[in-house]
Every structure is written in C-alpha cells, then in structure tokens.
Specification:
31% strand, eight-stranded mixed β-sheet, 8 strands, globular, 145 residues
C-alpha cells in the first residue's frame, strides 16, 4: 500500500522503515521507553508496519500485530511533534483501520492521550488505557440489510 496525502507519503513497505528513527522515537515515548532496542527491532520484523515520509525522511510510524483472521492490535502509532495537527496521524489510522484486511477483525489498542482520535474510527474506551472496536465489516453488513 502506498498513498500520497498532501505532501506526505504513507507506505507499508517495511524496507522503507528507518529503524534507527523508530528506535529513537520509541526510546522517548511513555509507552515503549523501557523496551530494549533488540525487542523493538524484532517487533518491527514480526509486524505489519506503516511509515509516513516527507521529502524521503520518515516522520511517522504505526505497527499492527494480528492473527490474520479475527483480531488486530494497533500499536506504536506516532507522528513527529512538528508535523502534528495536519491530519497526518488521522489519515494514517484511517488507512489502517478502513483497509479490507482489518475490516472483519476486532481491533484493540492502548493509549493514554489519544482517545478522541481513535473514537473516530469506531474504537471505544473500555478502561483508562485500552480501547477496542467490533469488526466493522459486520456493522456494515447489518446496515446494508
């Protein structure tokens, strides 16, 4: 998947992921700052990853863990602070959560500060940190009856 959004390029081509960039960002994040770098690199290799790029520089990232059939876990979503407020993160989450690949799966994620973003895509808060959403394909199917 490759999508142009404004001046930004979003891709799920794992070869494009700047692993050092991801390591440095996650080392400063509240959710992954205790993960050893080798674990982060292993998680990238074992997940479906998305990168956001501006002028060939990576500015954002997201990762999906899935069984490929019933559920996905959306994690490590970020856009550099200087690029926030332009709809980039929203477009990234939209591309992921509305893809046919995940449409029939239950989605789960954890966040402390971005509930409003994820609620736009059907996620509901079920604790202070975790959110989930039912498979959107089922909802669409029921609405079309």
């Amino acid at each position: 998947m490759e999508v142009l959004y404004k001046d930004y390029f979003i891709s799920d081509d794992k070869i494009r992921i700047n692993r050092q960039f991801v390591l440095e960002y996650l080392a400063q994040s509240y959710w992954a700052n205790r993960r050893p770098p080798e674990r982060i690199l292993q998680s990238i290799e074992s997940s479906h990853c998305y990168g956001v790029y501006h002028n060939n520089n990576q500015i954002g990232f997201a990762r999906i863990i899935t069984d490929g059939a019933t559920m996905f876990y959306l994690c490590d979503v970020f856009v550099l602070q200087e690029y926030q407020g332009q709809g980039i993160g929203k477009r990234l989450v939209e591309l992921i959560t509305t893809s046919e690949e995940y449409e029939w799966m239950t989605g789960v994620l954890g966040t402390l500060d971005a509930h409003g973003l994820y609620e736009q895509f059907g996620f509901q808060k079920n604790s202070e940190r975790f959110m989930s959403r039912p498979p959107q394909g089922i909802i669409k199917h029921r609405e079309n009856r």
